[in-house]
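>> received
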Amino acid sequence: MRTTPLHQDRLEQGLRVLAQADADIARALAEIGPPTARVREPGFATLLQIVTAQQVSTHAAAAIWKRLAERLGDISPATVAGSSAEELRSCGLSRQKIAYAHGLADAVISGRLDLAALGAAAEEDAIGAITALKGFGRWSAEIYLLFALGRADTFPADDLAVRLALQRLKGLPMPLTAKQARTLAEPWAPWRGCAAVLLWHYYGAATLDRT
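>> returned
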């Protein structure tokens, strides 16, 4: 499997196919327009940024990442592995996330995680390689596959915003579990990742609800 970034043209291609098959997606696109593609560079820094952003606000995550970049310069396995817990804590990382960062750096340096091989790996194999790392759950792996590896069919159903937007899109009365969201998304294959990007966009436009 070759890594092809999910750039704007490919994202909109997938959404056009989905709109033809799903009236709710067609309606959402008519209401709010297509989302902007979010492409990230594959590699160590993006994986570290994903775990850094877990369970903190977007603003806080950006501030932490800025401090890391200023302190380390080049954010790489070597610079993270060579940084003490105190240095990383001064950038805003919690004790737990410092352990995750050091664990990720060690896995890449030792070869236990082959980042280059992830692009060619089957979906579940790539997810399994990432989730073998402490602190990296399925959500982290799927976010990486979608935005860094361009997997247009990866659907991060563990994401709360995705589930809430899907509930709203389909006019469902009850919150969805991740399992229910995955089931509802099955007809969208092989463009489920494009649908997820649209759902984030749709969730952000929630204040535009019709009265």
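>> Residues 8-36+153-208 form a domain with the Endonuclease Iii, domain 2 fold (CATH 1.10.1670.40).
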